[in-house]
Amino acid sequence: MKLTVLVDNNSIIDDYLLAEPGLSFFIEDGEEKILFDLGYSEIFLQNALKLGIDLSQCTTIAISHGHTDHTGGLEALIKHMWEKGMEKEPHKPRLVLHPDIIGDRAREKKKILGIFSGRRALEKTFQVQESSEPLWLTDRLVYLGEIERQFPYEGKKKVKDDRGRERMIDYLREDTALAYLSTEGLVIITGCSHAGICNIVEYARKVCREDRVVDIIGGLHLQKPSREQMEGTKEYLAGLGLKAFHACHCTDLKSKIALDEAVELTEVGVGLQLEF
User: Fold this and answer.
1) For residue 9, what is the DSSP state?
2) Beta bridge partner(s), residue 60
3) CATH of the domain at 9
4) Residue 240's domain spans which residues?
5) Conformational region of residue 45, where left means phi above 0, alpha means psi within -120 to 50, and beta covers everything else
6) What total number of domains does the chain contain?
7) Span 204-263, pLDDT tens digits
8) How far apart are CA 227 and CA 183, in angstroms?
9) Which residues contact 113 (CB under 8 A, 6 or more apart)?
10) Whole-angstrom distance, CA of residue 247 vs CA of residue 42
11) Mutual orientation of helices 43-50 and 74-84 as an angle, nearest 10°?
12) The pTM is what?
């Protein structure tokens, strides 16, 4: 498997590649060409062009969750696909996502995947495949679906409203990730980790029936985390025996510094390529 960072908050390759607060990865596994998330704008297309990546060859687009920093590039992708004739059979790629993203909850907000559109518009361009269960995209790469929550310090946050009533926020049932089963162990590929990185890894181990974890790459949703969450996360990650750790996107500087005490971080940015 080969993974290329098309969108991240940072750019580390000296080719004038563009960065923005968002995330998009291009994944190649055999004949499968997979876009995981689409960033906030159209820059994933521009960066792919500069990197010599032909997105017209994509077979699958997988969405981690519905926030616009991961889906805002959808309109640009649809336009690109129609220009390339990708919306026609048999070239029509799959669009894999949790049912909540274009289901009743999304319709209530009158917003789907970062654009004001509807299921019919999506189905004209993609083979829409909704799943809350694990879905194998290749023999070794799995879309995890709805993540089981078992660590009490992750995937949820209580706040008080203006009347002093507690309510739960940031519990995105739709949030998911990918896992790749390499010969050395699992590679965990995350979008934003609203479900919690420890929950994601533990669920990936269960789905793939593999305890070894070799690398984690993606956003960790650690932005001013509580002390309980940071300490719990550090302890869990330290016990994995990771060979590499690529925290990016929604991981703030203090969290990266703290995590580096438990696992050795490697810099991430647009243009980075990893092979497993």
Assistant:
1) S
2) 34, 94
3) 3.60.15.10
4) 2-275
5) alpha
6) 1
7) 999 999 999 999 999 999 999 999 999 999 999 999 999 999 999 999 999 999 999 999
8) 35
9) 63, 66, 71, 74, 97, 101, 102, 106, 122
10) 23
11) 50
12) 0.91
